[in-house]
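Tokens for chain A. Residues wanted.
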């Protein structure tokens, strides 16, 4: 019956579609009118057909995404209270952000670790402490965010020095599972293009594999930030899974599915008209979900200027709950399969990123290129181009560089500094995170 129904319709080729569009344009040039080129040098067409659909196969998560509550730990008792409350209000995953050693008995008191996924983002390196924590956590599902190369890219320095940092990490790898993070949010928040993010993430991970060997592959996981280019960001997560599969194939190792933790970008967040940040983070979380992220941690609308607070975090957590339960995205990781446009973007992004990755490896690897300043320079080139687009209002952030509310005042709202710069002696030039709106916001604050 279905074949009979569809046989009533004549098949239309891409050439026929283009010819019809050309007629409707009434003399206007098809390429100039309807094609546009992204900052990733991908030309986007006005229509896509099954000829654009890729033949790749992706290993996507089988279960729904985790809703993660990220918690800054200044006091174990307060952080524990916040964690327990978050779990009761819908989170099923926790991320603790810690800068010093802590009492994990107090921090995790009353939390059933067998029922949640738990993450620790450490801003220090201590293998003996991490070993004790791993023993305490046992066989439960936990991930450590430890990334000595990531710390070097962000700060320009090792924690101690190259040799001792690698020795510490080697000891951690022996005693802990899921303990090696590849922090790629830095590249996004510094203004790297999507293609660069993918290539640098793969090269970043490969640097560890080259140093420690294939045995560490199963302990690697990835942290991504997601921007507002909706379809491209969906394709970004999917493209990375393709690239990871391709890299493991080169090592002739069994496929280890990439575990991907995501959060919204800070690059496009704004101080003024801050409620618009909720719209941005909703779109970005949707991209992460549809791209097949394992875990999504949302960012509160007032993250830039308020200390972490119950109201802002509840709103950000509820955004994810609405997407999961009310918007029908609970098991949405496969929805993008077969979509001509997204699959075409996925294929193009992965191919372009693979080309950059090969260039990095041919030139000696990620760490060598980082020490030469090549990675930093190339990110700056793209970031400066994007900044120019923002300054000229070709790239619009509503309420900030367009349709400003002159009555919007922020000086009295600043509980934290939204403009953070490090000034210290470094071994190499660090990759600096910078929001597009910073210069404009500073001018507005001075004029209030």
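Reply:
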């Amino acid at each position: 019956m279905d074949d009979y129904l569809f046989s009533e319709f004549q098949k239309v080729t891409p050439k026929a579609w283009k010819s019809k569009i050309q007629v409707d344009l009434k003399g206007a040039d098809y390429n100039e009118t309807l094609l546009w080129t992204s900052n990733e040098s991908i030309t986007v067409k006005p229509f896509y057909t099954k000829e654009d659909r890729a033949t790749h196969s992706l290993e996507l998560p089988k279960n729904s995404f985790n809703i993660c509550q990220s918690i800054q730990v200044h006091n174990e008792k307060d952080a524990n209270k916040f964690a327990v409350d978050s779990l009761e209000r819908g989170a099923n995953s926790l991320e603790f952000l810690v800068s010093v050693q802590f009492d994990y008995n107090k921090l995790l008191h009353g939390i059933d670790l067998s029922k949640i996924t738990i993450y620790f983002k450490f801003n220090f390196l201590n293998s003996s402490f991490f070993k004790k924590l791993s023993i305490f956590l046992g066989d439960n599902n936990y991930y450590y965010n430890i990334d000595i190369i990531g710390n070097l890219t962000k700060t320009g320095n090792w924690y101690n020095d190259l040799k001792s940092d690698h020795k510490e990490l080697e000891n951690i790898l022996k005693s802990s599972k899921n303990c090696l993070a590849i922090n790629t949010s830095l590249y996004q928040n510094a203004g790297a293009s999507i293609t660069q993010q993918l290539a640098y993430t793969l090269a970043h991970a490969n640097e560890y594999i080259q140093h420690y060997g294939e045995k560490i592959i199963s302990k690697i996981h990835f942290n991504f930030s997601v921007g507002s280019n909706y379809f491209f960001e969906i394709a970004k997560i999917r493209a990375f899974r393709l690239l990871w599969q391709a890299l493991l194939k080169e090592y002739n190792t069994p496929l280890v599915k990439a575990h991907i933790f995501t959060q919204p970008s800070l690059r496009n967040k704004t101080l003024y008209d801050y409620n618009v940040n909720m719209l941005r983070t909703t779109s970005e979380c949707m991209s992460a979900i549809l791209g097949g992220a394992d875990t999504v941690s949302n960012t509160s609308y007032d993250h830039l200027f308020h200390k972490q607070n119950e109201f802002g975090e509840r709103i950000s957590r509820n955004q994810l709950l609405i997407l999961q339960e009310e918007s029908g995205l609970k098991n949405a990781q496969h929805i993008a399969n077969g979509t001509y446009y997204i699959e075409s973007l996925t294929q193009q992004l992965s191919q372009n990123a693979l080309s950059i990755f090969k260039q990095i490896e041919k030139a000696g690897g990620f760490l060598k290129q980082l020490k030469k300043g090549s990675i930093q320079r190339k990110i700056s080139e793209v970031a400066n181009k994007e900044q120019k687009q923002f300054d000229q209002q070709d790239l619009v952030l509503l309420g900030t560089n367009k349709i400003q509310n002159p009555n919007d005042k922020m000086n009295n709202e600043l509980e934290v500094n939204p403009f953070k710069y490090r000034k210290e002696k470094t071994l190499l030039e660090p990759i600096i995170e910078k929001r597009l709106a910073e210069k404009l916001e500073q001018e507005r604050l001075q004029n209030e």
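The CA atoms of residues 257 and 275 lie 36 Å apart. The first helix runs from residue 2 to 7.
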